[in-house]
Design goal:
The protein is mainly α. Helix content is 56%, strand content 4%. It has a single domain (2-338), classed as Ribonucleotide Reductase, subunit A (Orthogonal Bundle), CATH 1.10.620. The model is unreliable at 1-60 (pLDDT under 50).
Length: 410
């Protein structure tokens, strides 16, 4: 179902964001990181809220000139989240232990290498009409999820830059530059959705989507992994399509090589920031949290991508093979800063992820069954329990010390 109206956004911070929302959101739904992992066991993959294949036909839901505003996807543990944190604690951070590296990264941000990169060309003209209805449907879902994720980063970074500017100007400037990049990405993705007659109302999302509150150190772990896994996802798709141009279903993929370098620089920033706060990457507590966030990010991506494998098939990729490559590379990259990483070469790791895939498929089937809600809950109980057990077993697998990646990585 689409709503009328449009919110233009391209290459600049999104319009339609209510200024008062930059204060403490009144409808925050804060919960700690442990809840995220627990909820994973309870929620099936996000059911697509896109119109059916037949309704996203060649004509689209709206038009490119007057796109319909798409209702946002239903929130589950697998959909992109919006975050907030303790701004006072961020402002008070002492950067001196790694200030030189952070200043060097900020100088890289100032150069804004991709300032003129995100400019649409004639290749976009009529490209949407070349896709069959099923490919259109899964590609629009990809655009929506990616746009929401990039916009989530913009909101967090922009608010951080505003709140800590007076007390921590270097950190604030870095966040401002990253907010610029994320807004540019979100705008480019949302503009691509208009080729299919749809658009996200990002102002509506700002005002109505629940915010997850993480402590600063948990923000570091989550955003570092988000940026680094984003780099490996984008560069893997770009390199694959370089070799197989016949599978390039839309010209947006031509932009992925430079695009992913923004993600990589953002990840390097959080790497340097964690080194400036050494307690985040040393000691037994840091080891547990690093394992937790690696597992949460990898498991979420694997289950989500296998559930929407049709998108990757449209690109000539196998979702499982692609995800295993991305997970291995992100795990290896994380060893540069995290004290431990996961044993992703252990076949048991992948067997247990596959159990999550099967359990979540069963949960989705139960969720879609035409039965009363109480019966659905009873039907889901064994799969919730099985997911919780698998996640616990994955977490308890022996990690690998990052020192084992020396000297090639660390």
């Amino acid at each position: 179902m689409a709503r009328s109206g449009s919110v233009p956004i391209e290459g600049a911070p999104p319009q339609g964001v209510v200024p008062s929302l930059w204060g403490p959101p009144s409808a925050l739904a804060p919960y700690d990181a442990c809840t995220t992992l627990i909820l994973f066991a309870m929620v099936p993959p996000a059911a697509s809220t896109l119109p059916s294949s037949s309704s996203i036909g060649v004509a689209g839901v709206g038009t490119q000139e007057a796109p319909a505003i798409k209702d946002p996807a239903r929130d589950t543990i697998l959909t992109p989240r919006f975050y907030t944190t303790d701004f006072d604690a961020m402002a008070a951070m002492d950067l001196r232990p790694n200030e030189v590296e952070l200043e060097a990264i900020c100088e890289e941000f100032r150069k804004d290498y991709n300032r003129h990169h995100f400019v649409r060309n004639e290749e976009f003209d009529g490209a949407a009409e070349q896709l069959d209805p099923d490919t259109r449907r899964v590609f629009v879902e990809f655009l929506e999820q990616s746009c929401t994720s990039e916009f989530s980063g913009f909101l967090l970074y922009k608010e951080l830059s505003r709140r800590i500017k007076a007390k921590n100007p270097l950190l604030a400037e870095c966040f401002a530059h990253m907010a610029r990049d994320e807004a540019r990405h979100a705008g480019f993705l949302n503009k691509s959705m208009t080729d299919f007659g749809l658009q996200l109302d990002l102002g509506f999302l700002t005002a109505n989507k629940a915010y997850t509150k993480f402590s600063p150190e948990h923000i570091f772990y989550a955003t570092y992994l988000s940026e680094k896994i984003g780099y490996w996802r984008y560069i893997a798709i770009y390199r694959h399509l370089e070799k197989h141009p016949e599978s390039k279903i839309f010209p947006i993929f031509n932009f992925f090589e430079n695009w992913c370098q923004d993600e990589n620089r953002h990840g390097d920033f959080f790497d340097a920031l964690m080194k400036a706060q050494p307690d985040t990457v040393r000691g037994w507590k840091a080891k547990l949290w690093c394992r937790f966030f690696l597992l949460a990010v990898f498991a979420t991506m694997y289950v989500r991508d296998v559930a929407r494998k049709e998108f990757y098939e449209a690109l000539g990729l196998d979702a499982r093979t692609y995800d295993r490559y991305v997970i291995r590379k992100t795990n290896e990259t994380s060893a540069r800063v995290f004290p431990v990483v996961l044993d992703v070469e252990n076949p048991t790791f992948w067997d247990r992820l596959e159990s999550l895939v099967r359990n979540n498929a069963a949960l989705a089937e139960a969720d879609n069954a035409p039965t009363p809600a109480p019966l659905k809950v009873l039907r889901k109980l064994p799969f919730w329990a099985a997911n919780a057990m698998q996640m616990a077993r994955l977490f308890l697998m022996a990690p690998i010390s990052s020192d084992q990646f020396q000297p090639a990585v660390r």
